[in-house]
Amino acid sequence: MSFDLDTINPYFAKAVALREIFAGDAAARDREGGKPLAQLALLKESGLLNLLIPRDYGGAGERWSTALKIAREFAKVDGAIGHLYGYHFSSQHAAHLRGTPAQAADIFTRSAAGNWFWGNTANSFSKSLFGRRDGDGYVLDGYRPFASGSHVADYLQIAWEDRDTDRRSFAVIPATRDGLRIENDWDGFGQRQTGSGRVTYEGVRVHDYEVLSYKPDGGRPYQTITPFLQQSTLLNVFIGSAQGALLTARDYTKEKSRPWIHSGVERHTDDPWIKRIYGELYTKVRAATLLADEAAATLDRVWARGRDLTVNERGEAAVVIASANVHAGEVALDVTSRIFEAMGARSATIANGYDRFWRNVRIHTLHNPAEYKTRNVGAWFLTGVHPEPSAFQ
Q1: Of 56, 77, 128, 335, which one's alpha carbon is 20 to 30 angstroms from that of 144?
Q2: How would you write 263-308 as a 3-class SS string?
Q3: Measured between alpha carbons, how far is 64 from 287 in angstroms, rounded to an integer?
Q4: Is 384 left (phi over 0), alpha (psi -120 to 50) or beta?
Q5: CA dist., res. 133 & res. 206, Å (int)
Q6: Of 232, 245, 284, 250, whose CA–CA distance to 393 is shortest?
Q7: What pLDDT is attached to residue 115?
Q8: How many Å apart are CA 307 and CA 248, to the nearest integer?
Q9: CA dist 172 → 121, 138, 178, 208 (Å)
Q10: What is the mean pLDDT of residues 27-40?
Q11: Which of these, 77, 369, 86, lies nearest to 240 by C-alpha position?
């Protein structure tokens, strides 16, 4: 078992082909940071950016599980591309979740026709961007941190607080809007090409028709599932990173590692110690992958329910996705660290760049603390009470 996608699916076949291209310079691009423009151009050419847009509006009409497995495939070699690809869909579907049906149809149609790549400046923690009413819209001033994908985006999902009432609003605007300055100043030690830095707003106008303010009589649980999309992307970046690190380490061990002088074997792969390490790590990754697949299938069911989604159904899905996210992060941190024990000292060079797997996982698990997801799952198991909807669950 090599964690391969079923390439009979034409979208998976495209993803595998792109993964091989991305692998060629993944370590070098990780060192350089900046914008993955060549990789984005290939994604646009592949048609995979329109994967989830309904067919009626020019997309492929595929399921979320397909997109998540493709993000996972990219993360086998490049966690930043896997992250950007998965988050693209969350912002692309903001109008569907938060806007009117007419807004969603318009955005889907124009996005598919323009082959737009989506980013966001909707950080849920930072109250640093404020809007004031002005004529037929709003004027925004301030900034947002952690604006993933903004540095290469065609369109952005944005959020701000009202200067007087502190009420949060959402909208979608072009990334070229006057007054918008994308700083591209991300300096994290991982995910170096995600552009997750600051975006500054100076008198940025948002028109009323761009504001997402659909308030249905029913369907509220469905409008709260944005965290499912984001957490599902991250857990599949964890899974892909763990798979990629393990496969990379296996190849290095077979081709380059030398047996320890006291091992008594001629080949490193014959050392019982090395066999045990790989047996343990493979088993952990395999189990985490199966749980991730269950979570992806759960998201498919939630999405298919649409505005008929019930509070109880949402709560059950929250537990499954949280469990998968926590386990994937723990396994990925373990695997991406322990592979060096099996490969040996010569593997730990900047030129090899194998540390990128750990750095990419570590930085995301810090943004999304496993402790609180684990507590929520534990509380549900003890009491049967589902987690309350929030920005992270």
Answers
A1: 77
A2: CCCCCHHHCHHHHHHHHHHHHHHHHHHHHHHHHHHHHHHHHHHHHH
A3: 21
A4: left
A5: 10
A6: 232
A7: 98
A8: 43
A9: 10, 13, 14, 11
A10: 94
A11: 77
Q: What are the tens digits of pLDDT across the range 76-94?
A: 999 999 999 999 999 999 9
The packing angle between helices 37-46 and 79-92, to 10°, is 50
**And the tokens for 1?**
């078992």
CB 305 within 8 A of CB 316: no
* Identity of residue 372: Y
- Establish how many alpha carbons lie within 13 A of residue 48's alpha carbon, considering only the half-sphere containing its beta carbon: 32
Question: Tell me, what amino acid is at 353?
Answer: G
| Rounded CA separation 378/362 (Å) | 23
- Measured between alpha carbons, how far is residue 202 from residues 2, 134, 142, 164, 344 in Å? 50, 14, 7, 18, 51
For 35, counting Cβ atoms within 10 Å of its Cβ (0-12 exposed, 13-18 middle, 19+ buried), the class is: middle
Give, as one character, the DSSP assignment of residue 344. Answer: -
Which residue is it, tokens 């999902």? 157
Please report the pLDDT score of residue 217 as a whole number: 58
pLDDT, tens digit, 9 for 90 and up, residues 124-136: 778 899 999 999 9
Element (H, E) at 162: strand 155-162
